[in-house]
Design goal:
With 588 residues, the protein is an alpha+beta fold. The protein has 18 helices and 19 strands. It starts with a helix and ends in a 5-residue tail after the last helix.
Length: 588
């Protein structure tokens, strides 16, 4: 064995054989009844064994020795995914939209963009919120799908041609509208200069996870006050809708054709689950979250910066409608789902008597009832974050009644949280307080604090997210002009992952001297520093100084390069998102 695919095949078959001998004896009387599902089960076992054998952190568990060839083949998968993830990235309008255009160029279930091609090819995943990165094809899924084809069609090996065929067949289709971010900067003399930055916004995605349409609204927000203030007018994410009756339709249709499967619904569903679970069972982000949990640090790094930027406005909108502060609803959502739109309680508790789903973890019964009551479609809005948040906050409002949020809101919410969290029987309130409510209250306190600007008092942005002018690459962050020696503060709590030179042998390269901080959701980069005041492995709080601004690395003048990567997107690497979507937190 000299590569990841050969070893995956070998290891999977060995594990399946061992489990098969044991399970066959245990279930022998029932085999005639479960023959179809049992075959899929074996494939699931082989897929999990094969895919898990591909990850460096699990080699010691599987008995497979890591080789340079393993990493090369993993890189091959990632490069093919990178290639085909941008194959169909289409711009749908000829010139960027402005506020007077409203929500132009957004599709509807009756008038989707897919399978059209738009007016031009973007050639990259460029959504400023990073929605495309979350829906992109990942190498683990591609590897699992390729292994499954090898097993079902009894192929002898996995080669580059097979990999490319599978990945091309599974690649996503992304449709973007170009929109302006309009930035008005007030200088010390009161003069206002206006800059219009064209940015792509994802409006439709046809993927293996569903067919999604995204919607936006125009808003204006201000950073700072008086002189040196900045006003930003932009399209803000409002909602998304998955428009297929079966969100897995595309993946399952592809499997039927590719694997020559029967169209029996149950067998297709089991096969799809085998591929999806095997392909997504491991990534660096989940490993990081598990580490935080095991070390009791999961809630230590939670601040307003942790909230996905596209959700903040939805929590705020729900506050205006139902009166529950956005920071409290967001805290409940984080405790319930870690802000996962597709969070399913049976992933971790397969025998749970009640099924809960989504950001607010409503039961199926409550979702069906409340979503209809509020005017949402229980099927099409199942993965709509706006619908999930509104339904959850509506339920909380009915449990809480009227609360003085300037008074003892903790005590006033305990009884409602006990019911919402499923605490029943003896000492329910005490158990809820210790295990559930106190965690939500602590998170809520953290969310109250606005996300700080990384260079307080300096708001002039000289290069925006996505800029390509004068560059041989897309700008992955924002450049904030400031003199050398200004305090640079952490916008989040978290752990310092790196602090030092990007290349000690060449201090003119890249970020120069920089700091990288990681929390539960994002990775934050502070580049071109003149001095660093933290060290790798250190915990930092929101607002702590991590260094001082400078002009090191590849820099043409004193400034801070500030970058945020969404760790849930685009596999192990994460995806850069526009920092302005995170930094601007609605006023309380």
């Amino acid at each position: 064995m000299n590569n990841i695919d050969d070893e995956s095949l070998e290891q999977a078959k060995k594990l399946a054989n061992l489990l098969g001998k044991f399970i066959k004896q245990a279930l022998k009387p029932y085999l005639p009844v479960i023959a179809i599902g049992f075959g899929i089960f074996f494939l699931l076992v082989m897929l999990i064994a094969g895919v898990y054998s591909a990850f460096p952190s699990t080699w010691s568990l599987t008995g497979i020795a890591p080789t340079a060839e393993d990493e090369k083949v993993k890189d091959d998968y990632e490069q093919l995914c990178d290639k085909y993830n941008v194959k169909d990235t289409w711009i749908v309008n000829k010139k960027p939209v402005s506020p007077e255009d409203g929500n132009a160029y957004e599709s509807s279930p009756k008038n989707p963009y897919y399978p059209g091609k738009g007016v031009s090819l973007l050639g990259k995943m460029g959504d400023r919120y990073g929605h495309d990165g979350v829906l992109a094809l990942r190498w683990g899924t591609a590897h699992a799908a390729t292994l499954y084809e090898t097993y079902t069609l009894n192929l002898k090996k996995i080669d580059k041609e097979l990999q490319e065929k599978v990945i091309n067949g599974l690649h996503p289709y992304f449709y973007y509208k170009m929109s302006y971010v309009i930035i008005g900067t007030t200088d010390e003399d009161g003069q206002v200069s206006v800059e219009k930055i064209p940015v792509p916004l994802l409006v439709e995605a046809y993927t293996n996870q569903g067919h999604f349409q995204f919607h936006y609204k125009w808003v204006s927000k201000t950073i700072g006050a008086g002189s040196s203030s900045v006003t930003i007018t932009e399209e803000e994410f409002v909602s998304s809708q998955q428009i297929l009756p079966n969100k897995w339709q595309r993946l399952e249709d592809w499997m039927v054709n590719e694997y020559k499967l029967s169209k029996d619904d149950k067998s297709i569903s089991l096969a799809r689950e085998a591929i999806w679970e095997a392909g997504n069972g491991y990534n660096k982000h989940s490993e990081w979250l598990n580490w935080l949990l095991l070390n009791g640090l999961y809630y230590n790094y939670v601040t307003g910066a942790t909230i996905p930027p596209e959700l903040i406005s939805l929590f705020k909108e729900a506050e205006a409608k139902y009166g529950i502060p956005w920071w409290f609803s967001a805290a409940v959502s984080f405790k319930e789902s870690s802000f996962r739109i597709d969070a399913d309680n049976r992933e971790n508790f397969p025998n749970a008597s009640v099924h809960c789903y989504g950001l607010m973890q409503l039961t199926d019964e409550n979702w069906e009832r409340i979503s209809r009551q509020l005017g949402f479609d229980p099927v099409l809005d199942r993965d709509n974050p706006r619908a999930q948040i509104f339904c959850g906050v509506y339920m909380l409002k009915n449990l809480f009644g009227d609360i003085d949020w300037n008074g003892d809101w903790r005590g006033a919410t305990l009884s409602g949280l006990a019911f919402y969290g499923g605490f029943r029987g003896d000492n329910a309130l005490e158990r809820c307080k210790n295990e559930y409510a106190s965690v939500i209250w602590g998170i809520a306190d953290n969310f109250k604090n606005a996300t700080p600007w990384p260079v307080p008092g300096y708001y002039h942005i000289t290069s925006h997210f996505g800029d390509t002018e004068g560059r041989d690459h897309v700008h992955q962050g924002i450049d904030i002009a400031c003199p050398v020696g200004i305090s640079v503060v952490s916008t989040s709590a978290g752990k310092v992952i790196y602090a030092g030179w990007q290349n000690p042998a060449d201090t003119t390269e890249g970020f120069g001297m920089y700091v990288c901080v990681e929390d539960n959701l994002h990775m934050y980069y502070y580049g071109h520093l003149s001095q660093i005041t933290v060290s790798a492995g250190q915990d930092v709080n929101q607002g702590d100084t991590v260094g001082f601004s400078g002009n090191t690395g590849s820099s043409t003048g004193p400034h801070l390069h500030f970058q945020i990567n969404n760790l849930t997107a685009n596999g192990d690497k994460g995806q850069a998102i526009d920092p302005l979507t995170v930094l601007i937190v609605p006023e309380q």
